[in-house]
C-alpha cells in the first residue's frame, strides 16, 4: 500500500502536459489523429479536424512528422488537416493550440486568414514559429473555443475559398481551361456543403426496395378502380337478394 501511495504521489507531482503525453502509449501519428476526428467537405475538398491531447511542441517534434501527415492526408483523400491540441499546464490551466497542414498554398492561406480574423467566436491566435513547410501553427488565446465552435469557422473558410476561385462575370476565361470545363469539374467534384460533422451523425440511408415488391401489370398500378353510385347500388341489391334467397330456403 505504501508503494502504491508513493507512486500516486509522484504521478500527481508530474506536470499535466507530461501526463497527457504519457497517455499515448506509442501510438502512430495516424492513430493519434484518428482517435478523435471530424471531417467537413465541400465540392470535393475535404478537411480533417483532429483533437490531439498533447502539447503542440511535442507533437511537432515527432520523427518523420511531415511524411506521416502527408501519408495520412493522401490515404484518406484529405486536402487539409487541422490539429487542435489541448493540454493542462503546471497550474492546471487549459492550453489550446492549432496546427494547419495543407500542401495547397491557396487553401492553407485562406484557412489561416479566416481563422485569424474570426470574431464570432474570436480565437485570439498568435503565430508560433516552426520550420515545417506546408504547416502553420498558432497559440489559441481563447481557450473557450472548442472544436464544435470552430467547425462553422472552417466551413466559412471553405466557402470563401471556393467563392474566390469562381470566375467573375465579364472576366476572360482561364488560359487553357474553358468556363464550361471548370463547371464540369466542379459538378464532378461533389455535392453541396455537409453539416460539419462526421458521417456517423447523418441519417442512415433507407433500405433498398425489394425486387419482388411490385407485380407486373398489377391492377393497383393504375390506381384504385373508379366506383359509380349505380355500381354500388347494384352490388348492394345482389347481396340483399342473395341473403333473401338463403333465408327463404332455410324456412322451407
Would you spell out the secondary-structure blueprint of this structure?
Blueprint: H1 2-13, H2 16-22, H3 29-34, E1 37-42, E2 45-52, H4 56-60, H5 65-75, E3 80-88, E4 94-101, H6 105-116, E5 125-128, E6 135-140, H7 147-165, H8 179-189, H9 229-251
Parallel strand pairs: 2-3
Antiparallel strand pairs: 1-2, 3-4, 4-6, 5-6
Helix pairs in contact: 6-7
Short account of what is shown:
Helix content is 42%, strand content 16%.
Walk me through this protein's architecture.
- The protein starts with a helix and ends with a helix.
- It is built from 9 helices and 6 strands; from the N terminus they run H-H-H-E-E-H-H-E-E-H-E-E-H-H-H.
- It has a 6-stranded mixed sheet with strand order 1-2-3-4-6-5, sandwiched between helices.
- Helix 6 (105-116) packs across helix 7.
- The chain has helices spanning 2-13, 16-22, 29-34, 56-60, 65-75, 105-116, 147-165, 179-189, 229-251; strands spanning 37-42, 45-52, 80-88, 94-101, 125-128, 135-140.
Amino acid at each position: 500500500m505504501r508503494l502504491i501511495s508513493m507512486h500516486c504521489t509522484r504521478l500527481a507531482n508530474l506536470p499535466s502536459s507530461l501526463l497527457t503525453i504519457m497517455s499515448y502509449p506509442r501510438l502512430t501519428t495516424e492513430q493519434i489523429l484518428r482517435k478523435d476526428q471530424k471531417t467537413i467537405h465541400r465540392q470535393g475538398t475535404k478537411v480533417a479536424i483532429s483533437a490531439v491531447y498533447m502539447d503542440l511542441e511535442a507533437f511537432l517534434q515527432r520523427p518523420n512528422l511531415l511524411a506521416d501527415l502527408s501519408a495520412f492526408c493522401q490515404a484518406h483523400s484529405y486536402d487539409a488537416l487541422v490539429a487542435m491540441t489541448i493540454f493542462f499546464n503546471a497550474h492546471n490551466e487549459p492550453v489550446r493550440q492549432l496546427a494547419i497542414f495543407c500542401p495547397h498554398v491557396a487553401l492553407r492561406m485562406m484557412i489561416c486568414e479566416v481563422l485569424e480574423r474570426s470574431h464570432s467566436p474570436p480565437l485570439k491566435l498568435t503565430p508560433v514559429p516552426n520550420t515545417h513547410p506546408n504547416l502553420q501553427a498558432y497559440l489559441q488565446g481563447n481557450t473557450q473555443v472548442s472544436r464544435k465552435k470552430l467547425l462553422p469557422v472552417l466551413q466559412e473558410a471553405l466557402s470563401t475559398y471556393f467563392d474566390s476561385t469562381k470566375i467573375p462575370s465579364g472576366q476572360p476565361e482561364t488560359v487553357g481551361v474553358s468556363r464550361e470545363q471548370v463547371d464540369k469539374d466542379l459538378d464532378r467534384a461533389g455535392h453541396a456543403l455537409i453539416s460539419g460533422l462526421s458521417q456517423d451523425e447523418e441519417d442512415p440511408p433507407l433500405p433498398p426496395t425489394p425486387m419482388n415488391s411490385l407485380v407486373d401489370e398489377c391492377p393497383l398500378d393504375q390506381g384504385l378502380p373508379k366506383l359509380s353510385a349505380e355500381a354500388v347500388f347494384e352490388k348492394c341489391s345482389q347481396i340483399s337478394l342473395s341473403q333473401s334467397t338463403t333465408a327463404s330456403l332455410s324456412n322451407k
